[in-house]
Amino acid sequence: MGTPDLAPASVILLLLSTQLSLLLPGASAGTYWGDVEVLKQLKNALDPSSVSPGSCVASWDFAAAADPCDALFSDKFTCGFRCDATDGSGASRLTELALDQAGYSGPLAAVSWDLPYLQTLDLSGNYFAGPIPASLSNLTQLSRLGLSRNSLSGPIPDSVSSLSSLGELYLDGNALEGSIPSSLGNLTNLTRLEVQSNKLSGELPAALSSLGSLLYLDASDNAISGELPRVLPPSLVQLTMRNNALEGQLAPETFQLASSLQVLDLSGNRIAGPVPSALFTHPSLQQLTLSSNGFDSIQSPASLFPESELIAVDLSDNRIMGLLPAFLAGMPRLSALALENNEFSGMIPTEYALRAAAQPAQGAARLERLMLGGNYLMGPIPGPLLGLGQGGGGGEEEVRVSLAGNCLYRCPARFFFCQGGDQRSAAECKSFFGPVIP
Questions:
Q1: pLDDT tens digit string along 144-158?
Q2: CA distances to 31, 192, 195, 203, 312 from 286, in Å
């Protein structure tokens, strides 16, 4: 009998490869063809002139033999995505698609987005335009969606609300219009929602109160109107809605229920009425910014020494009248207080001056920033501040104080806290107080 012919080397290698893929569950069969197709669609959707040499997408060479998920020793497919999962056939699957901020431009709607294993999609800091495609609903395992700082337009589609695993949603810095959809209340795993710097309007939907995991909400620099919802997510740590068109009054119960809140910024709106005392006795609030609204008074808490975590309070540029609230000087952690450009009157409490002059009560922080300019405060400058202005007990380099633009008896410019504007004229002060200035 003759010796049988040896099988060609290529056939042997193919058999060995097949046997290894059957014996080793983790063995890869290459990138799944559908995931490769999505990468091709994305590259083809880009304006070729926006794909600069050295960028991630420039290394995506589908004409080469390199496999996208297995190009460790190749100069192809060098960045822009990750493959950390395999499917039942052993094929590698895309789990992250995060492009560099290289100035890519093109429509996202030209991509099918059929990537069922994708967990992160981040296209931030580019020039993608057009609407947010409804096909993003295909990303069923997505936990982070970053489309910040692009040129996207149109509404926020309801399809985003079907991404039940979504934990972070970044849509800020685009040209999105319409209202924030109530359907976002279905994203029960959402911890961060950023939609600032768009053209959004309408009211902040009350349905967002059902987001029991939401920690951060930023909807600043839009045209959102109406009143702040009476119920906020109880988990909320930071709420920022500056520079919108919010109106009405703040309900005290809103902040009593949001017991985890640490940062509240509602500046640059049209909110009126009193500043609720609940904000000054809140168990966790540290930063309160309500400047540039229409507040006319401050509700004082029951105690002159409220238990408060507030570190910074900014109520400047409102229409608040009356005496400077004594309780503000009794908040132990307060180190920055801005009450400029209101209609406060009366004398500056000595307690304010002592806190600014590094002589606070035991355990209290120093008022390193005390801004009282642009009011109708009268009388003499408190003695502790005079010493501060002459260099005693710390000076301008340690504390910032402003008393300009009031009705103080004397406030010469040699004191740093009197600089920045003259005191009001006697005629202006008399017009405000009446015929007799106390």
A1: 999 999 999 999 999
A2: 49, 19, 23, 26, 7
97, burial (CB in 10 Å: exposed 0-12, middle 13-18, buried 19+) = buried
What count of other Cβ atoms lies within 10 Å of the Cβ of residue 63?
6
Cβ–Cβ under 8 Å, residues 83 and 31: yes
| Contact (Cβ atoms closer than 8 angstroms) between residue 389 and residue 417 | yes
Q: Is the pTM of the predicted complex or chain greater than 0.85?
A: yes
Contact 279, 301 (CB under 8 A): no
DSSP 278-344: GGTS-SS--EEE--SSEEEEEPPPS-SS------EEE--SS--EEEPPGGGGG-TT--EEE--SSEE
Round to whole Å and give the CA distance between 86 and 289: 49
Quote helix, strand, coil % in the chain, to nearest 5.
Answer: 20, 20, 55
- Sorted by sequence, the CB contacts under 8 Å of residue 72 that are 6+ apart come out as none
Checking if the pLDDT of 65 tops 50, the result is yes
Q: What's the distance, CA 67 to chain centroid?
A: 38
Give the number of C-alpha atoms closer than 13 A to the C-alpha of residue 117, restricted to the C-beta side: 20
For 255, the 3-state DSSP assignment is helix
**Residue 305: what pLDDT?**
85
Give the pLDDT confidence of 189-209 residue by residue, as tens digits.
999 999 999 999 999 999 999
338/360 Cα distance (integer angstroms)? 18
383 in Cβ contact with 353 (< 8 Å)? yes
- Find all residues with CB under 8 Å of 20, minimum gap 6, and list them: 27
| Nearest one of 145, 210, 205, 142 to 179, comparing CA atoms | 205
Cβ neighbors of 312 (< 8 A, separation 6 or more) are: 286, 287, 288, 289, 334, 335, 336, 337, 369
Structure tokens belonging to residue 25: 């569950």
As given in the structure block, the two tokens for residue 296 are: 């006319």
Number of H helices, E strands in the chain: 6, 29
| CA 156/CA 23 separation, integer angstroms | 47
Pairing of strands 81-82, 96-98: antiparallel
Tell me the C-alpha distance between 14 and 220, whole Å: 59
C-alpha 231/C-alpha 208 separation (Å) is 9
How many C-alpha atoms does 127 have within 13 Å on its Cβ side? 11
